[in-house]
Amino acid sequence: MSHSGTALIDPYQIFSRISLSEGKRVADLGCGRTGHFVFPAVKIVGDKGVVYAVDVVKNILDSIKSMARSEGYDNVQTVWSDIEMPGKTPIPDNSLDAVFCVNVLFQLKNKAGAIKEAARMLKKGGYLVVVDWAKKLGALGPSEDRMLNPDLLAELSAAENLKLVDKILPGEYHYSLIFEKN
């Protein structure tokens, strides 16, 4: 079963940039109904890894849980949380190899809080991967005034001891910044 396409964003391109591999522990913050990063990630991390699907909308998590069960993935764990509230996501400090925020931060009022929460959960040397809408004339996505400025993202991340290590274009309408926790 295909849970999501790669027409807009190719998760595998991003996974290769951070060397996602078997046994890793990752979280997708704001995972969304299709699990666009959840299900490709679980195929890579395998039975020895864990993928946390985090969202604030409970019925989205029910959908993810149902899809994971039907596919036989026992290592997809759904987590209900408001990522704008640092310290509230029930994932231990310094426990994750990677955190993905895909098309999420532009929607949030407390972007700094969400970055702080992601940094809290990351191990030293772990990666925060942010994918968001690029400003492009006639593009899909939110209005330009709601789009996340990459410079602001870099500033917020630096404040949480996250160093920018890579920039990529994972699709025609998106940019991705990859930060490593120092």
UniProtKB/TrEMBL annotation:
<dbReference type="Pfam" id="PF13847">
    <property type="entry name" value="Methyltransf_31"/>
</dbReference>
<feature type="domain" description="Methyltransferase">
    <location>
        <begin position="21"/>
        <end position="134"/>
    </location>
</feature>
<dbReference type="InterPro" id="IPR025714">
    <property type="entry name" value="Methyltranfer_dom"/>
</dbReference>
<protein>
    <recommendedName>
        <fullName>Methyltransferase domain-containing protein</fullName>
    </recommendedName>
</protein>
<dbReference type="InterPro" id="IPR050447">
    <property type="entry name" value="Erg6_SMT_methyltransf"/>
</dbReference>
<dbReference type="InterPro" id="IPR029063">
    <property type="entry name" value="SAM-dependent_MTases_sf"/>
</dbReference>
